Structures are given as structure tokens and as C-alpha cells.
Amino acid sequence: MTRIAVVSAGLSQPSSTRLLADRLAAATERALADGGREVTLDVIELRDHAHDLANNLVTGFAPPRLRETIERVTAAEGIIAVTPIFNASYSGLFKTFFDVLEADSLIGTPVLIGATGGTARHSLALEHAVRPMFTYLRAVVVPTSVYAASEDWASGQSDGLNARIARAAGEFADTLGVGRPSRPVDPYADPVPFTQLLGDTAR
Description:
Elements: E1 2-8, H1 16-34, E2 39-45, H2 50-59, H3 64-75, E3 78-86, E4 89-90, H4 92-99, E5 110-117, H5 125-136, E6 140-141, E7 146-149, H6 159-176, H7 194-202
Helix pairs in contact: 1-6
Protein name: NADPH-dependent FMN reductase
Domain NADPH-dependent FMN reductase-like: 2-153
Keywords: Flavoprotein, FMN, Oxidoreductase
């Protein structure tokens, strides 16, 4: 069973961002099914964690509900991440979520990126903003990113969008089959008890 976290940073409800995330998830599910693999989709709406994310930035600690969500994302075998584009870049909510993750938590994780916006002029934001962020986090971003402008949802105009979704989902499914490398070992994960340290000093 392949578990995929679907992260949507849409602000409205319903939102085109969530719609694109769902379309990418469904296409990935079909692509994996063609290879005889089952998938579990874990959909996460970041708008539900907006206040907790702000508190996390200020205090440095994630409230329990946000911590659980972070663990679900970082433990997934792959991530579909979709953001609305504002002022030619990702939304603040989207960036804040990935800012609060541990630095090494996405190493080697396959990621399919998507974005929505009112005009096709913002489509390059995926390449100059979203992709570099995940590359910095050392995730494995699939070659095809998917941008959907308002006109892409119009009747008779969706063929191009459908083709991009299918191609990106196929690449993502292929990447998921490679497997995720082991994460670096945390040297502080199993600390020596303080009493033992005192005992060593006494000797």
C-alpha cells in the first residue's frame, strides 16, 4: 500500500486549488492501479491549520493537531503539493507549512507540484518559486508541474490541463516505485541518560 499526502493550500471553500489537488491525486491513483499497486490518499487542507501554523512560527512549537499533520506528511511515501499563486509566488500559508518542517524531513521524498491562478501569466511561479523550495529541501520533484489558470477549467478548454495532469501523475507514479532513501540518523534521538553521564564522570 502506497500512502500519499495531498497538501492543498486553497483558502476558499470550495477552491480551485483543492480541485486541482483532487484531480492530481485521482490521476496518480489510476497510474498506480495500472501497475497493480494500491494507494491511500491522505488529504490535508492547510487552511484548517492557519492559526496553529502562525503560533508555531512565533513559539517554535507545533500544537498537537498540527504536529500530527506534520508527521502524516513527512511519513508519506510521496507528496502532492498544490498552492494558489499570489503576486507571482506561492501563498504564505503554503510556505509557512513547509517552513515549520524539520530540515531533513523530506529528503528523497517524491513530490508532484501544482498551482492555480487567475491568469496563465503566473504559470512560471512553479519553476522559479515552488520547485526551488522543494529542491532546497532535497525532495525529488517530478519533471512535469501542473498549473491551472481560470480558463483551464472552462468547458472545451480542459484538454491541455488533462494531458498535463496525466503526464505528471505518470511521472510521479514511476518515481514512487523507486523507493525512498533512508533518512540521516539523528545523533540526539537516543541520548545517554544524565545519571549515566554522572556515573562515568565519577569513575
